Amino acid sequence: MTAVGTLDPDLFRGLFRRHAAGVAVITTTGERPVGFTATSLVALSLEPPLLSFNLSRTSSSWSAVEEAAYVAVHLLAEHQEEVAATFARSGADRFGPATAWSFGPYGVPLLQDVLAWMVCRIETRVHAGDHSVVIGQVVEAGYHPAHRPLVYHDGGFTGLMR
After folding, report:
1. Are 100 and 112 in contact (CB under 8 A)?
2. What is the Cα–Cα distance from 29 to 10, expressed in whole angstroms?
3. How many whole angstroms separate alpha carbon 68 and alpha carbon 124?
4. pLDDT (tens digit, 9 = 90+) per residue, 46-61?
5. Exposed, middle or buried by CB within 10 Å (0-12, 13-18, 19+), for 108?
6. 142: left (phi over 0), alpha (psi -120 to 50) or beta
7. Cα–Cα distance between 85 and 157 in angstroms, integer?
8. Are residues 115 and 76 in contact, defined by beta-carbon separation less than 8 angstroms?
9. SS3 of 31, please?
10. How many Å is the maximal CA-CA distance in the chain?
11. Phi and psi of 75, rounded to 5°?
């Protein structure tokens, strides 16, 4: 048993590597399009439709998200492992020629051929430790009925088994 407040960060990270999660890419605009891979997406409320995601305040994307009025949340399909990896990789050309995207509602970058997408108006940001919880209200959305989700588990991407 570990004393309160002394849990090893590597153990904590390892605990959550065992938790399977859907893979999302969050995008917004700052001086240029910005985006990152997230597995912390949570549905919060139906009325109004609210969701949340977490982001480290040391992330290169944080300053754009901190100032943004709108973000796009993309649920990735199982064929989009490379998209997930690109948006997770530091220094990657996330909006380069290999990424299919266009500007969507409210000027946010929308990725193409995703499982689902939601444009959200940022409602609030709450600092929590070294991260911030960002809460957004979904104002526009759509989905691709034939796609299956991409899942992150134990440090890698996979699809669902049937």
Report:
1. yes
2. 32
3. 11
4. 999 999 999 999 898 9
5. buried
6. beta
7. 9
8. yes
9. coil
10. 50
11. -90, 120
